[in-house]
Amino acid sequence: xxxxxxxxxxxxxxxxxxxxxxxxxxxxxxxxxxxxxxxxxxxxxxxxxxxxxxxxxxxxxxxxxxxxxxxxxxxxxxxxxxxxxxxxxxxxxxxxxxxxxxxxxxxxxxxxxxxxxxxxxxxxxxxxxxxxxxxxxxxxxxxxxxxxxxxxxxxxxxxxxxxx
Length: 164
Hints:
- By secondary structure, the chain is an alpha/beta fold.
- Helices cover 40% and strands 21% of the residues.
- Helix 4 links the parallel strand 3 and strand 4.
């Protein structure tokens, strides 16, 4: 019985894919996001607005202490990489709180809200969002070059932003 259980576990593990995605699924790209002025767009449209530029995506929330503590590091990245588009995707379900914190922290960049929150939605499912802050880097062609970082001072973020 133990041998069969071990064999079953090995088969399941072997069939799982551990590859890091380099492209968003079409379903994730169709996720609706809302700007600070409540304009509805798809995530695909937002990404397309920055075609030809690297994009640092910051998944965060106004209620997330680690997110707020990390914002000075993100601001430092903005100074170091002014050519990069900074895309802030809030998973706040309370839009008022989200907007208030954006204003209070004077966050410069492109701000959108994922109204379904952190646990629901095609985009958060695609990236397996289980912790925020979460950072991604997308290259000039729209390819995901850094899929997961949870600290704005992660060396892999700088490496991905410098990559030619």
